[in-house]
Sequence to fold (150 residues):
Amino acid sequence: MNLLKPLKWAGVGVGALAAVLASAQLVQPESPKLRTEPSHTIQATLPASSALGPVLERACGDCHSNTPPSGWYARVSPLSFIIARGASEGRMAVNFSEWTGYASERKRALLLASCADARSGRMPVAAYTRLRPEAKLSAQDVETICEASR
Ligand code: HEC
Fold:
């Protein structure tokens, strides 16, 4: 009897938590409607054979391009809100979809920072690569990013 009571309350707690998480799914962040002009992207400035474009799309695109985050994590709250916020802050720091709008010194500085961040593992953010393992950079990917800054 005394043993069952705490168990019962634990059950109520788990049920309540599940209900809160379930109803949280009804609320999702509004994704900004960003239009990408293909000729403004960094990809447009690269030769078709360049490995850089695909690396940036795969590992950085969710937060540094006009393409909204698309993985499962973008549909499950509260993760979806955290990712949406990271994307809006990330786009302010560097947006590879609006690349041609940066002055050439700015482009160079952003590529140097990208190289340093990729090398140190600061980017992509570790909490994010846990959700999206394919965004992890290989040593070759880091080289590809760093070559572009030379
Ligand atoms: C999950 C979202 C996310 C991903 C993925 C991501 N970033 Fe970022 N990035 C941010 C946010 C948020 C900021 C702004 C805050 C900060 O600097 O930490 C930022 C800032 C930056 C900056 C400017 C800050 C600085 O170091 O001067 C660079 C450059 C950058 N990211 C490069 C990259 C590159 C390259 C990739 C892919 C290899 C990448 N990021 C992947 C979220 C992300």
Remarks:
- The radius of gyration is 20 Å.
- The pocket of heme C is lined by residues 59-60, 62-64, 86, 89-90, 93-94, 110, 113-114, 117-118, 123-125, 128, 135, 137, 145 (CB under 6 Å).
